[in-house]
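Most newcomers find our protein records easier to grasp once they have seen one. A learned vocabulary of local backbone shapes supplies the integers on the structure line. Here is such a record, shown just as it appears in the course material:
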Amino acid sequence: WDGGTVANTPLSPAIDAGAEEIVVVLMTPWDDDPDPEDDPTGKLTPGNLLHAAGAAFEWALLASFQADLKMFRRINELVNLRLENARLQAANRVLEARLAGREIHLPDLDGDGIPDILQGAARHLPEPVIIAPKRPLPVEQIIQYKHDRHEYVYNLGYEDARRAWQAAGRVAEGWATP
């Protein structure tokens, strides 16, 4: 979208633009089940003021993303309820018509079991694929470009993307099919 310049987690603009799948790329670790081996001390203590400022900034961005993702999930739940309600309304209308001795035809062009007239614009989106580093990147590596570190950081990102892609049940280059 915009690299975090205006909207660091633009889930809403992506949905409004008609996205059918969403891939989020974070520069901060995102793990619902962290590996204790990644931080054996149990503390990610910043070593200096620059690291502390970087950590505070990353936490703020993560908090924003967490809020957006939570809203995304709630909206999907609401969409699922709306779609189920539309299915039930359609079944009810068909039964009422039959009881009255009439036939009713409710077109369902996409074949999802919901008549098009009742479906509206509601659509369920799959969970976003979240690509994030396994370990925090030092702030200096982000704000100061050094050619010798470029290949290293690039390869880390590539492996993180493959890992996230596979965890989402997708086929990733060089990985066994899930």
Remarks:
- The radius of gyration is 23 Å.
- The mean pLDDT is 78.
